[in-house]
Amino acid sequence: MATTPPSKVPATAPAATGDFAKGLAGIVAGRTAICSLEGDLRYRGYAIGPLATAGDFEEVAYLLLYGELPTPDEHAAFSRRVHGAARGLDPAVVDCLTRLAARAPTAAPMDVLRTGVSLLGQIELDQTPGPREALLQQAERLLGQVPAILAAWMDLAAGRPVAPWPEGPLAPALLERLTGHRPTAEQTAIFGTTLVLYAEHEFNASTFTARTIVSTGSDMHSGITGAIGALKGPLHGGANEQVLETLSAIGSADRAEAWVGEQFAAKRVVMGFGHRVYKDGDVRAKLLGRMCRDLARGTAAEPLEDLADRVERLMLEHKGLKPNLDWPAARVYHALGLPVSVFTPIFVVARMSGWTAHIIEQIGDNRLIRPLSLYCGAPPRDYRPLAHRR
After folding, report:
1. What is the dihedral of CA 368, 372, 377, 383, to 10 degrees?
2. How many other C-beta atoms are found inside a 10 Å radius of the C-beta of residue 146?
């Protein structure tokens, strides 16, 4: 990622013209071989559709980290390493979580994950980036450690002892740990699909945060800790929690039009709609929306789908806005019996694959990320000593 040194600002640079892009909207800040949003969402060149339909999170995590789809042997070995990291969470982390749960059991799981990753960095003595192979090993461990931290915290916060990590792939194992029961094949498939869809999305706020941090020469755990902090915000990862709050506030399909009208009149944002990049609808939302409706059909979650459909039609009719991924993902997690407090942490579990891939890419071809700003404060002023001020 290149930035222009202040001494070499071109005549057309924002500082010279008074022009700038608020929020860096539309600005190309670098290059990546990991993900493309041009025409279709692609991971390492593969269209998201088949990857999401397969719902194999380990396959996608391997692809993002190593650049190629794994062979059966590579897949099995990779899965064993991730599983081993989940089962082998350092006792010092568990001890810290136990003390935190006794002191503040209502702490937000997102804050716990941020703290947990920071602890892992201290335990590993992660100070500066190592060689690529060492970074890949760190990434694989984090893929298992982070869901294990989330599951351990949910046990401890509820006053339960930490249960062992289940055998098998990450998707059904995590779903079992968070719900307390073995998921069906259908539940496992759609949960795995959500992990694949949340795994990576180019230079979003949290990924750019991670890349900025490691561009200074900092370590992977610092980059991930910062990324979690960025994802926590309701304008990024926290939006999926607010989607369910929105649907709960509306209550039923017959109240949708009045509720949406109130939001428009008050100029409030309806979470789950619109996207900075996708102007014709989020391809991920289209894929997951269909699966969500199939999952809910004939169950207690079906009325919520009727309500969601009504809100979608109103948003498109009045604002021309289509759903983003958070809109169906929140409903899927609700239908699976997951508490709202883990919706965004599950996003962290999935995006760990994309974040670590970007960190490794940034470190491999690094330049300090240091953009310019357009000053809009007071004009030049003369300093007056304190005794001369009135």
Report:
1. 60
2. 26
Q: Are 291 and 193 in contact (CB under 8 A)?
A: yes
* Class of residue 337 by CB neighbours under 10 A (exposed 0-12, middle 13-18, buried 19+): middle
On whether residue 118 sits in a domain, the answer given is yes
Residue-wise pLDDT for 271-295, tens only, equals 888 877 776 778 999 999 999 999 9
CA distance 276 to 198: 16
366 by Cβ neighbours in 10 Å (0-12 / 13-18 / 19+) ranks as middle
Count of CA atoms in the C-beta half-sphere (13 A) of 103: 7
pLDDT, one tens digit per residue, over 86-118 is: 999 999 999 999 999 999 999 999 999 999 999
Per residue in 236-263, pLDDT (tens digit) is 888 888 898 899 889 989 999 999 999 9
By CB atoms closer than 10 A (0-12, 13-18, 19+), residue 317 is: exposed
Do residues 121 and 53 both lie within one domain? yes
pLDDT of residue 57: 98
DSSP per position, 188-247? HHHHHHHHHHHS--SS-HHHHHHHHHHHTT--HHHHHHHHHHHHTSTTTTTHHHHHHHHH
Same structural domain, 210 and 273: no
Residues designated catalytic? 236, 275, 326
Which position has the token pair 């994950």?
Answer: 113
* Domain total of the chain: 2
157 and 254 housed in the same domain:
no
How far CA 203 is from CA of 25, 37, 71, 103, 371, in Å, comes to 11, 10, 28, 37, 15
Residues 329, 181 share a domain:
no
On whether the CB atoms of residues 206 and 227 are closer than 8 A, the answer is yes
